[in-house]
Design goal:
This protein is mainly α. The chain contains three helices and no strands. The mean pLDDT is 82.
């Protein structure tokens, strides 16, 4: 339950940052903001997530989630 709550908080935080910054009103803003997140999700092995705080949070959540999933 704790991990699920952390995922929900992460999603709300990212959504709030997008809403507060008005991302999407200028072409490319949303893509630049989400690029570090996509980079974390695209990598097979997580290394340094980069300078974006949302990417660091996502990388930690991904590691915690993967630790609880059996290998296929």
């Amino acid at each position: 339950m704790e991990l699920t709550a952390h995922w929900a908080a992460f999603i709300c935080r990212v959504d709030d940052r997008i809403d507060r910054r008005g991302l999407g009103s200028v072409p490319g803003d949303r893509e630049r903001f989400t690029a570090p997140l996509r980079h974390v999700l695209d990598r097979a092995a997580i290394t340094s997530p980069g300078p974006a705080p949302q990417a660091a949070l996502l990388a930690r959540l991904r590691e915690r989630t993967a630790a609880g999933v059996p290998s296929v």
